[in-house]
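Q: What does the assembled structure look like for these inputs?
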Amino acid sequence: MSETQVHETKPEWKERAWIDAQTYEAWYRESVEDPDGFWGKHGKRIDWFKPYTKVKNTSFEGNVSIKWFEDGELNVSYNCLDRHLEKRGDQVAIIWEGDDPNEDRKITYRELHAEVCKLANVLKSRGVKKGDRVTIYMPMIPEAAAAMLACTRIGAIHSVVFGGFSPDSLAGRIIDCQSDFVITADQGLRGGRTIPLKENTDKAIEIAEQSGAKVRHVLVVRRTGGQVGWQDGRDLWYHEEMEKASAECEPEHMNAEDPLFILYTSGSTGKPKGVLHTTGGYLVYASMTHQYVFDYHDGDIYWCTADVGWVTGHSYIVYGPLANGAITLMFEGVPNYPDSSRFWQVVDKHQVNIFYTAPTAIRALMGAGDEFVTKTSRKSLRLLGSVGEPINPEAWEWYYRVVGEERCPIVDTWWQTETGGILITPLPGAIPLKAGSATKPFFGVKPEIVDNDGNPLEGPCSGNLCIIDSWPGQMRTVYGDHERFVQTYFSTYKGKYFTGDGCRRDEDGYYWITGRVDDVLNVSGHRMGTAEIESALVSHPKVSEAAVVGYPHEIKGQGIYCYVTLMAGVTPSEELKKELVAHVRKEIGPIAAPDKIQFAPGLPKTRSGKIMRRILRKIAEDDYTSLGDTSTLADPSVVNDLVENRQNRH
Ligand code: WTA
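A:
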């Protein structure tokens, strides 16, 4: 193991931080020894129409049941908007920075409140009711946040689908949650290029309707003014509907355990799962982690570069920050447009204090050269964050030294769509940093590292990361399939939530996430199931079989490596590879485009027909000299051909 550098907590970090080392220790102890007392107290950080009398009622055993604050009533949009009006109605809530550096907007809490109330009335007038599922397929514009909040105002459940997903993926998500209302835009704009969101929506609805789904309305924001198809009666312009709507809308009183949103995410098997989060616990957890992890103080300008299509955008662009009355920056563009200085130019332009991004962006910008960074000021920056995948120590040190000029602590936050909020993270005033470590658990989080048989490991160790007790932000179920929830997360190690991640704990009790140990890939911080990509490949008429594995990729973290067996008589060619890449892009979306395709006459299988991915991973990594035991293969000779034709040679 290489020497890791410890960065001690600087006095100035400690001074301004909400949480110092002693407070962390004391609160952490209380949070795990007396969760009812701890969360009973901290649950009050948000406003309740009806206060809760019960706090925690959770079990990871049997049918798994998770309830927090179960008799309380609240409304998320009320907490994110109404309750701030008196004190900070005229404070900016959202700073929007367009893809084009000349475009920006500032929206105050009062303005956002009016927008959300109007939109909630539009939804109501078009028949959306409490409990209905609304699909949001939007670019990064303030209307996306307004759409989410408008749903919460009337108790509708939103399902945000990332704008980079294909019509097929969108259709699958519309079908799965039986959503009959879609909010989208004419086109998105990213890196100077348009994305045909309305056209994709039209195609998705066509596909979904073949499976019996019925979409009643599509509400369309005019973003670019580009040409779109139109179905009278079904399609509605956002601006026309909003003109007619009243800006008064009473927030629905929701039970703490009423569903708040569904967010689809990939697992190791099958189709993406609809992760369901509920109202009370989620909001308490998102707002509390946002305040303490990013050490948010009144007036700070906070920027999370994620997309609202991912959980990071939900919890740390919209819900956490707005519940805290923060100023949250929303960015439509990409890190390298117009050039690789863009992030830092935006930081200077809006005087950003807190900046939260993904390792893949950091690595790409590091590769572009320091001068893109150093020619900007960045003096406003005070804290940096990282999320989405393990950050390698080199990228961490570069972020710390070049971007933050050794002035800003880095919070490397580990969490998942399923966890709702950050679970393992430094708190900037409390915990000395180690480059590449997510450090310690947040309040109420009980990590456990287990061996492959589920035995808990003590002290410094390496194994599989489980969480052994519930926290308020935890997902409650897989939408419409509770059995799958129990199977996926609580059956590998009985009675424990299994994260799917590998993890090491060092001699100081710091946690180091080593990446997924299941068949989930993490490509540029985007989660993808190998099974999904395989099924996209075999849906191509020339493909008979496919196996997909990840391999280390300098910028993306992991690259997508596909072994493809063709139908008899089909000739392998470079053109066919391109065709297959295009096919996967069409089926899932550009984020799933294969990096390498290897045509394989046969795949290594056991005699019972199970593909031995271990071998495929090794070959993809160009580590074919240590393939381990191949004697159990049905046909050991296929391995030679695979090694011979490997696509990664170092
Ligand atoms: C990975 C994103 C290491 C991990 C919030 C996890 C990380 C998956 C980190 C969840 C981190 C996320 N260090 N790995 N700081 N953050 N991951 O659901 O493998 O899109 O299981 O949620 O990303 O991805 P998801």
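Residues 109-125 form the longest helix (17 residues).
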